[in-house]
Amino acid sequence: MTTATTDKRTALHEKHAALGASFTDFGGWQMPLKYGSELAEHRAVRETAGLFDLSHMGEVWVTGPDAGAFLDYALVGKLSAIAVGKAKYSLICAEDGGIIDDLIVYRVAEENYLVVPNAGNAATVAGELESRRAAFGDLVHHGAAVSLRDASAETSLIAVQGPNAQEIVLALVPGEQAEAVTGLKYYAAVELEAAGVPVLLARTGYTGEDGFELFVANERAAELWDAVRAAGEGRELVPCGLASRDSLRLEAGMPLYGNELSRKVTPFEAGLGGVVALKSKEGDFVGRTALQAKKDDGAGTTSGRRLVGLRGLGRRAARSHYAVLKEGQQVGEVTSGQPSPTLGYPVALAYVDVEIAEPGTRLEVDLRGKAEPFEVVALPFYKRQK
Q1: Which ranges of 23-171 would DSSP assign to H, the alpha helix?
Q2: Which PANTHER family match (predicted)?
Q3: Count of domains for the chain
């Protein structure tokens, strides 16, 4: 987990303390690690429903007639192609192609986008967008008809994840808005009222389960949290911390910035080359030249290292920074790893040499001096039944 010198608290901090949460520093925020058993919290998300405070995430509004074109320039994807009410996963990269952050972009209205970066990178991303706005203005010669507003400090984010998530959210909305919930597709969002509180409701998540994320003003966050908990009574809703969030996202094969993603990694090595719109997007964007060169060089496919999933063939779990071995020689490094509560065996993500990245390849991980057997497998490790 990220360490920082600051000690920021979300608007829901007292709610977590009252529930007996154990706290940890994450991206400079004091966040609930777990409330009781992290295993029970993990299983609740897989079997019933879990409730998360994600208010440490960033929120940057990008608005104006040039908002879509600006985001096409600032990020690697074609964000102008997002339909209103939909969302897209994207990356913000440096000029050399290194990943500054991964993020989700929601198109809330024709000229109104919401960019959601990770907690530890929120200020960095907001600053990068501001500097790129100036460069974009110079690029289009007439100045950019786009404005930015960093709303991170005034916005809370609550997530409900798991098989019972839709039923819980339906209990919060007026009957006439029920269809807006049931008809909401994955990676889509709608503005409505939940328990009388205005929210942006998104069908997104980081657990591998169906679920929703609710963006809400800080001053209404505690009210909404209590309402969600009340709606979850009888539906086995369990408050969940970052420990279970990490094990859930690992089973789902989802990368974590600071582990799988960093400034030293390009999208191609991380298996995210499909996010980069080199063909579908006309004009320049930050990092385009370097990313085109990386693709032409076969980065992550014919050269260098590639992010893969590893299944443990024994009982011991690999951990971050452990060496991956082939015939006694190091061929990679683990980025995340732990026992899978759902699958019953150890799983890990690792960067390994491309030559040995195919599923079925037998490798070892150096677990504190002892080589333990692992096998490369296709991601994700866990995929929910539709």
Answers
A1: 38-47, 67-74, 122-139, 165-170
A2: AMINOMETHYLTRANSFERASE, AMINOMETHYLTRANSFERASE, MITOCHONDRIAL
A3: 2
Residue 142 is predicted with a pLDDT of 67
pLDDT tens string 310-337: 999 999 999 999 999 999 999 999 999 9
Contacts of 315 by beta carbon, 8 Å cutoff, 6+ apart: 345, 346
What tokens appear for 11 in the block? 């608007």
What is the tens place of the pLDDT at every residue in 51-101?
Answer: 999 999 999 999 999 999 999 999 999 999 999 999 999 999 999 999 999
**Cα 229 to chain centroid, rounded:** 24
Cβ–Cβ under 8 Å, residues 74 and 286: yes
Q: Is the overall model pTM greater than 0.85, yes or no? A: yes
CA distance 348 to 311: 7
- Residues 42 and 163 placed together within one structural domain of the fold: yes
pLDDT at 254 over 80: yes
For the segment 272-285, the average pLDDT, to the nearest whole number, is 95
| Domain ranges, residue 211 | 8-57+154-251
What's the rounded Cα separation, in Å, for the pair 376 and 191? 42
Q: 169 and 46 share a domain?
A: yes
C-alpha span between 250 and 255 (Å, rounded): 7
| 183 HSE (CA, 13 A, CB side) | 7
List the structure tokens of 340: 């899978």
Cα distance between the two ends of the chain? 32
pLDDT of residue 2: 38
Specify the pLDDT at position 305. Answer: 96
Residue 284 inside a domain? The answer is no
Q: Let me know: does 260 contact 250? Beta carbons within 8 Å.
A: no
Whether residue 2 lies inside any domain: the answer is: no
d(CA 158, CA 181): 16
Backbone conformation region of residue 217, classed left if phi is above 0, alpha if psi is from -120 to 50, else beta: beta
